[in-house]
UniProtKB/TrEMBL annotation:
Keywords (A to Z) from UniProt: DNA-binding, DNA-directed RNA polymerase, Nucleotidyltransferase, Sigma factor, Transcription, Transcription regulation, Transferase
Key word Transcription regulation present: yes
Keyword Cytoplasm: no
PANTHER family: RNA POLYMERASE SIGMA-54 FACTOR
Annotated RNA polymerase sigma factor 54 DNA-binding domain residues: 308-467
Biased amino acid composition, Acidic residues: 48-57
Residue ranges constituting the RNA polymerase sigma factor 54 core-binding domain according to the UniProt record: 108-295
Protein name: RNA polymerase sigma-54 factor
Region of interest called Disordered, as start-end residue ranges on this chain: 48-71
NCBIfam families: PRK12469.1 (NF009118), rpoN_sigma (TIGR02395)
GO molecular function: DNA binding; DNA-binding transcription activator activity; nucleotidyltransferase activity; sigma factor activity
Domain of life: Bacteria
Name of the coding gene: rpoN
């Protein structure tokens, strides 16, 4: 069979997303801080974009001076001492600056000291101690294998492979590091960490040492009575040992953690005014964009290639302004719809949160469900009851006995409240919590569902919450 070339026509449909459409979708998903960075970047790159100066004052035409009058005014009011000082070796301003504090001319960031890291803090102490060069080399390898909580993550075999030293030398340096500040850092187990701290503090009671070295798991699981019988002590005496152990730090490196707090800037504010709620978009710091008239006028006499570049940038600027307006409009409509559906929450709090899905809001504002999903991503709203992510208002439903429904977040809030108010010596079991929910809300909820909600909120089971003292 011979090969041949043949032309043919084929008709097909294909979804093509233009760069402008991709930009509009991206703007919907950005958080407020990311949006500010994007707009500032566009202001730097696109000459057709300009920021509106709303505070610019237009001078009164009646006060405009002629050229000769302006010169006379300059001669009469000019500070010639300062003017001549700029051309002398030392100006008047320079003399005044010499009297200022040195940090006055520094930026705000330059005045702040960086937070010390755990490795840097230990390294600094090692250099101030009488470590030899060989011991410092071993210590650097040990410090490089200590995690954020202060525990050594490398085995002795791995350390000997990384540094030319015997296990005895490494163990000796490690022992000295464990006695640096914070005490217990570089330990391999929680038991070793606590025992080092007890050694430094002089806690040498044999019962306390045995509790730490051999019975931490029993203490974690609240097996107090067998321990009291084993050591032949009363429960009050055991409690005194536990109180002493709680003064120790099982994670000595946690205070030097490099994790920074995550700050949230609300995209929307919802205030109650009278009997209604007012929605205000947070536009603080958001530049007000306009087209740069200078470059628009320059297009008239530009060459063909320059005109093509100008037109592309002008279309990009116009589309960005349109996309930003559409984003703010969509955000306002979505929040307005959420306030309508979840009015009971804004009135009374989390326990009144109703079940809600994206489709309901999408149908209410007559937009696609994917658009609602994007606009509620990484967005936060400030309410009379705190700051919440917009996704928080969308939750599943649980059926009530009367045929109505209640939101899962409301049930979680009630479970959390019940556990917070419980008797710590007789904590509520999951089955009992389900019975109380059945009595209060008349909601059909199984014990395993209560356990799932409790675990999702990071709350331990009743056996681990029980306190004997």
């Amino acid at each position: 069979m011979g090969l041949e070339l043949r032309q043919q026509l084929k008709l097909s449909q294909q979804l093509v997303m233009t760069p402008q459409l991709q930009q509009a979708i991206k703007l919907l998903q950005l958080s407020r801080l990311e949006l500010l960075e994007t707009v500032q970047q566009e202001l730097l790159e696109n000459p057709f974009l300009d920021e509106t100066e709303t505070d610019t004052e237009v001078p009164d035409k009646t006060e405009v001076l002629t050229e000769s009058q302006a010169e006379e005014e300059l001669v009469r009011n000019a500070d010639w001492e300062n003017y001549l000082g700029e051309f002398s070796s030392t100006s008047k301003q320079a003399l005044s600056r010499d009297m200022e504090m040195p940090e006055e001319g520094m930026s705000f960031e330059a005045r702040l000291a960086s937070k010390p890291s755990l490795e840097g803090h230990l390294n600094w102490q090692m250099r101030l101690s009488n470590f030899s060069e060989h011991e410092l080399a071993i210590g650097d390898v040990i410090l490089g294998n200590i995690d954020a909580n202060g525990y050594l993550q490398a085995t002795m075999e791995e350390l000997t492979a990384m540094v030319q030293a015997s296990e005895e030398e490494i163990e000796s340096v490690l022992r000295r590091i464990q006695h640096l500040d914070p005490v217990g850092v570089g330990a391999r187990t929680p038991q070793e960490c606590l025992l080092v701290q007890m050694e430094v503090l002089g806690y040498d009671d044999p019962i306390l040492v045995s509790l730490v070295s051999d019975h931490l798991e029993d203490l974690e699981k609240n097996r107090y009575k067998p321990l009291a019988r084993k050591f032949k002590i009363t429960m009050d005496e055991l409690k005194s040992y536990l109180d002493l152990m709680q003064t120790l730090d099982p994670m000595p490196g946690a205070n030097f953690s490099s994790t920074e707090p995550h700050y949230v800037s609300p995209d929307v504010f919802v205030y109650k005014y009278g009997e209604d709620f007012v929605i205000i978009l947070n536009e603080d710091g958001m530049p007000r964009l306009q087209m740069n008239t200078f470059y628009m006028d320059s297009m008239k006499g530009a060459a063909d290639k320059e005109k093509e570049y100008f037109q592309e940038k002008m279309r990009s600027a116009a589309w960005l302004m349109k996309s930003l307006y559409q984003r703010q409009r969509t955000l306002y409509k979505v929040v307005e719809s959420i306030v309508g559906f979840q009015r009971a929450f804004f009135e009374e709090g989390v326990t009144k949160l109703k079940p809600l899905i994206l489709k309901e809001v999408a149908e209410d504002i007559e937009m696609h469900e994917s658009t609602v999903s994007r606009i509620t991503t990484n967005k936060y709203v400030s309410t009379p009851h705190g700051i919440f992510e917009l996704k928080f208002f969308f939750n599943s439903a649980l059926d009530l006995n009367d045929g109505s429904q209640v939101g899962s977040e409301s049930v979680k809030a009630l479970i959390k409240q019940m556990i917070a108010d419980e008797d710590t010596k007789k904590p509520l079991s999951d089955e009992r919590i389900g019975e109380i929910l059945q009595e209060k809300l008349e909601v059909n909820i199984a014990r395993r569902t209560v356990a799932k909600y409790r675990s999702a909120m990071g709350i331990a089971s009743s056996s681990k919450r029980k306190q004997y003292f």
